[in-house]
């Protein structure tokens, strides 16, 4: 057995990475096409407030993150559909609001500690058995929901109004998508880190869009790119002892660069 | 000779005394209009005359401020059978040209409502979609990216998507904008076939009076209120069309 697989923490991290690598781009493709890429970043900052609250109250930080992200998801969707603010302004309000709450809570807790640092930047040594269970269950929820509603999500993403005319419950599905983003952010934060989570949703999706010949292949290519990025990034992190999130996102960016070059040589028909 | 010009079909859409405003601006003023099975109705009117608003009210996308909307015999509030409508939106607002979808995936999405929430597309969904693509003559393009087609071809794909839900009534909003003349001729040929041979009831919103008047069996001239509703020949004879557009050009001249 290679060294990397001999450690229990590394086995858990790789399993968690595989789950994250699969679901993040599945959500990301829809976000990018709906021009909602910033939602993931917004919800991760809101989730950070939940983590900070969890650390301060000495409860389970991922639970705090999940609650905060879900509340944020519903709040964003309500503010967006109410039409009282412009679409992106709703995101800006929640992003800065979440971050402000997090900073206040962190200062109450007398500053940064190692634990918080790992939530911000991701780490491969920190996935506890309890974390793995949470990641597995939430990951299955996201995977199941996207698979079950993929045809509706495609229809509202391609042409929301025509979907509405067909009687597809557009508002409900928009809310579902935002909630799934919240869950995905929480699943991804242990490995990739709060500050880089949205990159794992967005970059593989954008890479796949460069190569796409259909929607189905876009999803498949996005998941493949993401899994490759996560696994390579985690190995680099293991052997070079650098932050996992950074290594994963940089690998994803290399794939994006390669796809851009490949497309220039041979544009899809 | 136009088949389906009889107006004694079953009423699909009945709008009674519809008023609608955007803020203080009255867009529809006491409009009463019926669409019956077999009709090929053209709705024409100058820009801002409320054509698209009227269409959106028929589709349940907008609620009128006052008036009664009946769809296939039931009141709007209780109406659930939206798959009896097929909708072909204006191309410009319909989609992003880099969207990674094949022609077949787009057409199949027209089955979304019929297939049922959370269910996967079945073999019959695929068969109906193939048939719809054959009807519009686009079957050989089924694996092409939608964004790589010409505007006229995209328009036919959107019609196929609308047909995939097997609608009784097909509503098209300014479908020939940005489509070249040759493709337009093909397009009207297709509509004629759908209406005469396949018995599909059609509503076509357009500002292209000259062409429309030749194709449709019923003409509604809208300028916030309904100026005229009847056969295209009567519309021309009565001078309703001319008056409506003359009023508009005066208005434009006045503004400039």
Offer a quick outline of the entry.
With 269 residues, chain A is mainly α. Helices cover 81% and strands 0% of the residues of chain A. Chain A is built from 12 helices and no strands.
Features:
heterodimer; A: 269 residues; mainly alpha; ABC transporter involved in vitamin B12 uptake, BtuC; 12 helices; 0% strand; B: 256 residues; alpha/beta; Rossmann fold; six-stranded mixed sheet; four-stranded antiparallel sheet; 10 strands; 37% helix
Give an overview of the whole structure.
The complex is a heterodimer of chains A (269) and B (256). Chain A is mainly alpha-helical and 269 residues long. Chain A has a single domain, classed as ABC transporter involved in vitamin B12 uptake, BtuC (Orthogonal Bundle), CATH 1.10.3470. Helix content of chain A is 81%, strand content 0%. Chain A is built from twelve helices and no strands. In chain A, helix 1 (8-33) crosses helix 10 and helix 2 (38-56) crosses helix 9. The relative contact order of chain A is 0.17. Chain B is of the alpha/beta class. The radius of gyration of chain B is 18 Å and the shape is globular. Chain B starts with 10 loop residues before the first strand and ends with a helix. The relative contact order of chain B is 0.18.
CATH domain class name of chain B: Alpha Beta
SSE order of chain B, as H and E? Answer: EEEHEEEHHHHHEHEHEEHH
Subunit organisation of the chains: heterodimer
Using the coordinates above, name the CATH class of chain A.
Mainly Alpha
Mean pLDDT of chain A: 90
The count of DSSP E runs of length 2 or more, i.e. the number of strands of chain B, is: 10
Q: Count the domains of chain A.
A: 1
CATH superfamily membership of chain B: P-loop containing nucleotide triphosphate hydrolases
């Amino acid at each position: 057995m290679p060294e990397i697989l001999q450690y229990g923490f590394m086995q858990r991290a790789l399993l968690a990475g595989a789950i994250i690598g699969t679901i993040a781009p599945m959500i990301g493709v829809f976000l990018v096409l709906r021009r909602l890429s910033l939602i993931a970043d917004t919800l991760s900052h809101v989730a950070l407030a939940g983590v900070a609250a969890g650390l301060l109250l000495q409860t389970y930080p991922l639970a705090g993150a999940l609650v905060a992200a879900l509340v944020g998801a519903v709040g964003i969707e309500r503010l967006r559909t109410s039409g009282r603010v412009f679409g992106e302004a709703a995101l800006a309000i929640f992003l800065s609001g979440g971050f402000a709450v997090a900073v206040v809570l962190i200062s109450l807790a007398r500053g940064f500690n190692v634990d918080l640092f790992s939530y911000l930047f991701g780490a491969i040594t920190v996935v506890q058995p309890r974390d793995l269970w949470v990641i597995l269950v939430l990951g299955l929820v996201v995977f199941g929901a996207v698979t079950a509603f993929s045809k509706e999500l495609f229809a509202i993403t391609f042409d929301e109004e025509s979907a509405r005319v067909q009687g597809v419950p557009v508002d409900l599905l928009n809310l579902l998508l935002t909630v799934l983003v919240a869950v995905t952010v929480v699943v991804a934060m242990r490995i990739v880190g709060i500050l880089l989570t949205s990159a794992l949703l967005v970059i593989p999706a954008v890479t796949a869009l460069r190569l796409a010949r259909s929607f189905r292949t876009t999803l498949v290519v996005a998941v493949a790119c993401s899994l490759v990025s996560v696994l390579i990034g985690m190995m680099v992190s293991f052997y070079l002892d650098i932050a996992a999130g950074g290594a994963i996102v940089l690998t994803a960016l290399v794939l994006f660069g390669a796809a851009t070059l490949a497309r220039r040589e041979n544009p899809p028909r | 000779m136009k088949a389906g010009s009889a107006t004694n079909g079953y009423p699909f859409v009945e709008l009674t005394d519809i008023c609608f405003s955007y803020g203080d601006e009255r867009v529809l003023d006491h409009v009463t209009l019926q669409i019956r099975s077999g009709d090929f109705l053209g709705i024409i009117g100058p820009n801002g005359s409320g054509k698209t608003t009227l269409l959106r009210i028929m589709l349940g996308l907008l609620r009128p401020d006052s008036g009664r909307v009946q769809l296939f015999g039931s009141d709007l509030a209780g109406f659930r059978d939206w798959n009896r409508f097929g909708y072909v939106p204006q191309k410009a607002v319909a989609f992003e040209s880099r969207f990674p979808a094949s022609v077949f995936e787009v057409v199949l999405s027209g089955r979304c409502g019929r297939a049922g929430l959370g269910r996967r597309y079945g073999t019959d969904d695929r068969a109906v979609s193939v048939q719809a693509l054959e009807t519009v003559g686009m079957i050989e393009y089924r694996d092409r990216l939608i964004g790589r087609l010409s505007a006229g071809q995209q328009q036919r794909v959107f019609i196929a998507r609308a047909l995939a839900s097997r609608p009784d009534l097909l509503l098209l909003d300014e479908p020939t904008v940005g489509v070249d003349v040759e493709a337009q001729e093909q397009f009207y040929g297709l509509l004629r076939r759908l209406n005469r041979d396949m018995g599909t009831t059609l509503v076509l919103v357009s500002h292209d009076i000259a062409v429309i008047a030749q194709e449709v069996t019923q003409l509604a001239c809208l300028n916030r209120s309904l100026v005229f509703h009847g056969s295209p020949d009567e519309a021309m004879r009565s001078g309703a069309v001319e008056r409506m557009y003359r009023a508009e050009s005066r208005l434009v001249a006045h503004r400039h």
